[in-house]
Structures are given as structure tokens and as C-alpha cells.
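Now for today's protein:

——
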Amino acid sequence: MGAAGTDPEWARYMPERLGELGLVDVDVDADVDAEVEVEVEEQLFRGGSDAARFWNLTLHQARDRVIAFGVPGEVVDAGRAVLADRNRWFPVTRRSSPGAGGRWWPEPRAEPS
């Protein structure tokens, strides 16, 4: 789609880009539901927010286990540091089968091409 000049995920990065342009007090309220075979709900949270602190603490508590799975400690630490950056925004997606409940998963930001 990018080759055709469109980016279907542009809205995920708009708050961060607005901040990069110097806008202040940028905030977002997003709740997207799509139901196919799997229920998908997305939210955005800002670095330094309560949600960012939650994920930072989660990484802190899981650090040794994540490293045991082969992720370098520097990568874990860098991930925790970026979660404190109020200029960054993070999409989180919850996927579940209908009626089965679901889990929230942060999705890494793909750098725009």
C-alpha cells in the first residue's frame, strides 16, 4: 500500500508527529473495534503516562526472564527508557476470539519508510 501512496496505519503515529512539529498538549482518545473471526480493539498511550508506567514496570519485573529468552539486556533497558519519553506514542492491540476474552499487547512502532 505504501507504494501506492497510502498508509493505513497513519493515525497511529499522528500524535507523535504533531508533537515533533511543535504542537503541545497533544492528546488522543481512540477506541477502534473490528470484528471478523477475531475481535480487535486498539488504543494509543503516551510515553510517561500511567499505561507507559505499567508497561515499564512489567518490563522491569520480567527483565531477567526476557533476557533468558535471548533478548539483550540493553534492548530491554532501551525499551523501558523510551516508555518514559512523553514525545512518543504507543499503539496497543487486544485480540481475542469472540467471547473468549483477550490480552493487551503493545506493538512496536515500525519506522515510516
Notes: Strands lie at 32-35, 39-46, 89-96, 103-106. The CA atoms of residues 53 and 83 lie 7 Å apart. The mean pLDDT is 75. The radius of gyration is 16 Å.
